[in-house]
Design a protein that fits this description.
By secondary structure, this protein is mainly α. The chain has a domain of 190 residues: Serine Threonine Protein Phosphatase 5, Tetratricopeptide repeat (Alpha Horseshoe), CATH 1.25.40.390. It is 36% helix and 7% strand. Strands 1-6 form a two-stranded antiparallel sheet. It has a two-stranded antiparallel sheet with strand order 2-3. Strands 4-10 form a two-stranded antiparallel sheet. The relative contact order is 0.13.
Length: 587
């Protein structure tokens, strides 16, 4: 966490591994005093904290039982097969997240002295909004730090990460700080989220009358135009109160999970359930998920019609829309469509999709036919995974005896498992040489479905399948809504779900499987397996389809050690700072 501070033009801060200040020409420097004269310069501190957030699609599924990469040098493939060490920084968020935290600490220390607008009410609202963003972003960065680096030390203590809430002067600060307890870190996240919700509206919308001004801002102004200037629709996709509630729900679920259940951690499942319930109530209840939400990435009319920062109804927070883009398709289309076929879903994941009647394929009531394995299945299988003779590409032949480049290991860009990725891609993109046609897309940051699944998991653990606690809905209600939306179990009155509703353990298994399916290839599985303390070493399986012959095989073994339930503190930091105690097992 050694840092040097460089303030150059509109690039506000840059943190590296050396404390000393560089010596460029003096006119290149902009000191902190410039914040008080230039509000855009001040806002840059907050914007840098956005820039350092981890990406939503990080391909970490490639290190789980859900997928492998056809590129053997892929960092996640190497990580899953034995190369994960404390010195391997592929999953570390330590430096970027602490950089983001230091950006907002500097802003929070000085924003009350900044003149953002001449009008006092506008100035106060603008300052409120940016302070709220800063507190929220600090909480989110701390969540990622906990997810990636918290864990048990060799002496059995459940530790988090150092808590930094003040700006650290590069030349005078003591950077050798110990890790705080996991519980202390969770409580710091909640304090920051409380502050974010105090300063921010639930969502950014333009208003037309004083009666629409949220209560916490009514004493600042009664003029709609002034409110809109500071908190209006112009600021959509910036951190808001609903995002703060979502980060609280993520944090509470992590804290209650088996990997972090510890006498020193008072977090409970009911806290996690109630945090997620607030978002479900805001959305309108269990049955308010959009009907097309599970195909959010390919809802073409919806995506192409996005403007003015508006969200599709499935999305709480997203990145900016990209236009005429074909990057994901270039990376993942099968080679016959001129793609590189990078992400290969596993047969493990394919088998996790139930039949359309809702029963797992191993259940005697499922009517699963291993000689025709892809028929009468959960519709999400077709939407998420490309398999042999897929209805969207009937010419696709994935078997090892295929005469096409799509067959197993036919070429470097061919599949290793007999499957290709469908989810996150738009199938109306063309990669034909000389006629490449990209399409519009966005990358989500938080989806409503994630929050619903968070509730289902926590509510089942807290109160059982049909218990509601202080809420008006249960885990059963939420899972029923999600499966109904997907078209699963609707033809037999959700017979399998009704079975699970009688058994908490069976419902737990179903909920975890629904989470696996709904959130596949979105960067959750790697961390879910760890917080559940589940098996990390289930081998990635493939299916070789040649004509009517289906031959299962092992595509890639996993080589995780038991201590890898928790990620490491980066070796470089432990080496530099003797107060940083490493998680058990990591060297």
């Amino acid at each position: 966490m050694k840092i040097r501070l460089i303030i150059i033009a509109l690039i506000v801060l840059s943190f590296t591994g050396c404390k000393k200040i560089l010596d460029p020409e003096l006119e290149n420097f902009r000191s902190v005093d410039n914040m008080y004269k230039d509000p855009q310069f001040a806002e840059g501190f907050v914007l840098e904290a956005y820039r350092t957030l981890p990406g939503y699609y990080n391909s970490s599924d490639l290190a789980t039982d859900d997928a492998v990469a056809n590129d053997r040098t892929n960092v996640f493939s190497q990580l899953a097969t034995g190369s994960w060490t404390a010195a391997n920084g592929n999953l570390s968020v330590w430096n970027p997240s602490y950089a983001g935290i230091l950006y907002v600490n500097q802003f929070l220390a000085n924003s009350n002295k900044v003149k953002f607008a001449n009008d006092p009410a506008s100035n106060r609202l603008l300052n409120y909004r940016m302070r709220g963003e800063a507190f929220g972003l600090r909480a989110l960065h701390m969540y990622f730090l906990l997810r990636n680096h918290a864990g048990l030390t060799a002496n059995g203590q459940l530790m988090g990460v150092p808590i930094i809430t003040e700006f650290q002067e590069p030349t005078t600060a003591d950077f050798n700080q110990p890790r705080a307890t996991f519980d202390a870190c969770v409580k710091q996240i909640y304090r920051d989220l409380d502050s974010a919700e105090y300063y921010l509206p639930v969502e950014y919308v333009d208003i037309t009358s004083a009666s629409q001004i949220p209560a916490q801002f009514a004493s600042i102004t009664q003029t709609p135009a002034i409110y809109n200037r500071g908190m209006g629709a112009t600021f959509k996709q910036l951190f808001n109160g609903l995002i703060a509630k979502s980060v609280r729900a993520r944090t509470a679920l992590l804290a209650a999970s088996p990997a972090f259940q510890n006498p020193a951690n008072p977090a409970t499942w009911d806290q996690a359930a109630n945090a997620a319930a607030a978002i479900i109530r805001y959305k309108g209840g269990p049955n308010s998920l959009p009907a097309n939400g599970y195909t959010f990435y390919d809802n073409r009319t919806e995506i192409d019609g996005l403007s003015l920062g508006n969200n599709p109804s499935e999305i709480i927070w997203r990145e900016n829309r990209q236009t005429s883009n074909s990057d994901r398709e270039t990376q993942n289309f099968p080679p016959s469509l001129f793609g590189n076929g990078l992400i290969n879903p596993t047969d493990n994941l394919v088998k996790a999709f139930p039949m359309a009647n809702g029963y797992p394929i191993g259940n005697s009531s499922s009517l699963y036919n291993p000689a025709n394995p892809y028929t009468s299945r959960d519709p999400r299988l077709r939407a998420y995974i490309m398999y042999n003779a897929h209805p969207d590409l009937t010419s696709l032949r994935t078997g090892s005896q295929s005469t096409t480049p799509d067959g197993i290991l036919v070429r470097a860009t061919s599949t290793r498992t007999g499957y290709y990725l469908r989810k996150t891609l738009r199938w109306d993109v063309s990669l034909t040489p000389g006629a490449v046609t990209g399409r519009n897309r966005y990358t989500p940051r938080i989806r409503y479905t994630e929050m619903y699944l968070n509730y289902a998991e926590a509510a089942n653990e807290a109160w059982g399948p049909k218990g509601t606690g202080p809420n008006a809905f249960s885990a059963y209600d939420v899972i029923k809504a999600i499966r109904t939306r997907a078209g699963v179990g609707t033809g037999n009155s959700h017979a399998y779900l009704e079975e699970c509703a009688l058994d908490q353990a069976k419902m737990r298994e179903l909920i975890r499987n629904e989470r696996r399916l709904e959130l596949c290839f979105e960067g959750f599985r790697f961390w879910d397996l760890r917080r559940w303390k589940a098996d990390l070493n289930e081998s990635a399986q493939g299916m070789d389809v040649n004509g009517t012959v289906y031959t299962p095989f092992t595509a890639e073994a996993r080589a995780f050690q038991s201590y890898m339930v928790y990620g490491p503190v980066p070796y470089s930091e432990v080496l530099k700072y003797n107060k940083l105690i490493q998680n058990a097992g990591w060297q």
